[in-house]
Write a structure and sequence with these properties.
This protein is α/β, with parallel strands linked by helices and 469 residues long. It has three domains: 1-31; 100-322, Neutral Protease Domain 2 (Neutral Protease, domain 2, Orthogonal Bundle); 349-468, Tetratricopeptide repeat domain (Serine Threonine Protein Phosphatase 5, Tetratricopeptide repeat), CATH 1.25.40.10. 68% of the residues lie in helices and 6% in strands. The chain has 21 helices and seven strands. A five-stranded mixed sheet has the order 3-4-5-7-6. A two-stranded antiparallel sheet has the order 1-2. Helix 3 packs antiparallel against helix 5, helix 4 crosses helix 6 (187-203) and helix 14 (326-347) runs antiparallel to helix 15 (350-363).
Length: 469
């Protein structure tokens, strides 16, 4: 049934429901509630000042103040309206380019380039919804929901328009009851992202305002509900990489969503939630989730699980380090060592690089970055024979992927050969270095220098200028 020939009753009902949920959610959020109270008090204060001015100020002064305030308000409103109007126009233009396909249970909106994958997306969305409902034992109401699929380029454009600095693989709009997925060309990852976002809609039925650590933990746990070992391995990797961090630090949502931490915090939250589910079961976790509507995180956790969050974190850490299969734990340690050593070669002392390289080679004798780290240390202490041997071993080691640091190993091998007077080998190394992508960091970029040294050999004089500069 249509009202006025424009809107169907279903559309009007959905719009009213979205507005009501948005107002309720804003009021429940402490920040939004404080903002609403502040604006209300400011309005009442303005009314009070106006009443006082009528009694104490001359009419001419009141009129001048009124005109000044009106002018300032008009300028501010115009500036805000132009800025937001431009953004809305860009979003509208973007939305008009999407294609739409309606089914009885889903409305699929997607980039035109994704048309050949439409049926696959519908199948994955439905399968993921059923799996999430089954895992969390909470079915969603039977209602048509919108699913939006975007390409990476389209998402980047939308972020630029909206001024978003962080990008995500997907998100759930719990107010409009819709999910958004960014498609990176990986069907399996798209399915996992569907699981994650559907879980957000489901757990919003339990409590809309749970802390990020809890609600993201439930979604990541759902994302990997059929592969818990994978989730635990990811968490253990980040525990090895950031060994001094605690879950307690990320109870604050702003810290949790900090772009510098988001991969680690999501992995930790998901693994910790899976651990709680394994130890206490879904009914108790769900009761804990409900408690958060009335109690703080610490109070709700203590009341439901009879221990503090800090105590549970220690048990979880012990579980990851002792209960996971040996192969999984060693692989997580190797990956953490590899990445830590990568950053150490760029930023840390040679002593740190030396210790990490020795540990890496103990764990994985054929790992090229261990050889590279040893070569860096030998080069900086002036042992060119050892540096050449280590760099050559790094370049002979099996190659997992063509990264900038692999190219840098060839570049530095070329420098050592130049200093030893082995020009032919140095030239070969510089040419190989140029086959790899250059480093994004200008301080570590090497392509321009490699081209320079192809023309003019690297000398001790240049090394001296570098060390003394």
């Amino acid at each position: 049934m249509q009202v006025g020939g424009l809107w169907t009753m279903e559309e009007i009902h959905n719009l009213l429901r979205i507005v009501a949920r948005a107002l309720r959610k804003r009021w429940r959020q402490p920040t939004s509630k404080r903002q609403t109270i502040t604006l209300t008090l400011a309005f009442l204060g303005g009314v009070l000042l106006w009443l006082l001015s009528r009694r104490w100020l001359p009419p001419a002064v009141r009129h001048a103040l009124w005109l000044s305030g009106l002018a300032l308000l008009s300028v501010g409103a115009a500036w805000f309206g132009i800025r937001q109007g431009k953004r809305l126009w860009e979003v509208y233009r973007w939305a008009k380019q999407l294609r739409h396909h309606e089914e009885s249970d889903l409305i699929l909106s997607y980039d035109a380039e994704l048309e050949p994958l439409r049926e696959e997306f519908l199948h994955k969305a439905r399968r993921a919804l059923r799996a999430a409902e089954q895992f969390l034992q909470t079915p969603l109401e039977e209602r048509r929901r919108r699913v939006v699929i975007l390409r990476e380029a389209s998402m980047a454009h939308l972020n630029r328009v909206l001024g978003n600095r962080s990008s995500y693989g997907g998100w759930a709009n719990t107010i409009a009851d819709s999910v958004y997925i960014v498609y990176y060309g990986d069907g399996e990852w798209a399915y996992r992202t569907f699981l994650h976002e559907w879980a957000h809609l489901i757990t919003a039925r339990w409590n809309e305002d749970a802390p990020a650590l809890v609600k993201e933990g439930a979604s990541v746990a759902t994302q990997y509900h059929d592969e818990p070992l994978r989730a635990h391995a990811n968490a253990l990797y980040y525990l090895n990489y950031f060994h001094k961090c605690s879950l307690l630090y990320f109870v604050d949502s702003e810290r949790f969503y900090d772009p510098n931490w988001k991969h680690a915090t999501y992995a930790w939250a998901g693994s910790f939630t899976l651990y709680l589910l394994e130890q206490f079961g879904l009914p108790r976790f769900r009761r804990f989730y409900h408690r958060l509507a009335e109690q703080s995180l610490d109070e709700a956790f203590q009341a439901e699980f009879e221990m503090s969050l800090g105590q549970a974190e220690l048990l979880w850490r012990d579980y990851l380090h002792t209960e996971l299969p040996e192969a999984t734990r060693r692989d997580a340690l190797r990956r953490a060592l590899n990445d830590t050593l990568y950053w150490a070669t760029r930023n840390e002392s040679t002593l740190t690089v030396q210790l990490l390289s020795e540990r890496m080679l103990d764990e994985q004798p054929d790992c090229w970055i261990g050889y590279y780290g040893m070569g860096v240390c030998a080069f900086w202490r002036g042992d060119l024979e050892a540096a050449q041997e280590w760099f050559e071993q790094a370049n002979r080691a099996p190659e997992q992927e063509a990264t900038a640091i692999r190219g840098r190993a060839w570049f530095e091998c070329g420098i050592v050969n130049d200093l030893k007077g082995q020009r032919e080998r140095a030239t070969e190394c510089y040419q190989r270095a140029l086959e790899y992508p250059d480093d994004d960091d200008p301080a570590h970029a090497y392509h321009a220098r490699a081209r320079q040294y192809l023309e003019t050999p690297y000398t001790y004089e240049e090394r001296f200028r570098f060390l003394s500069g």
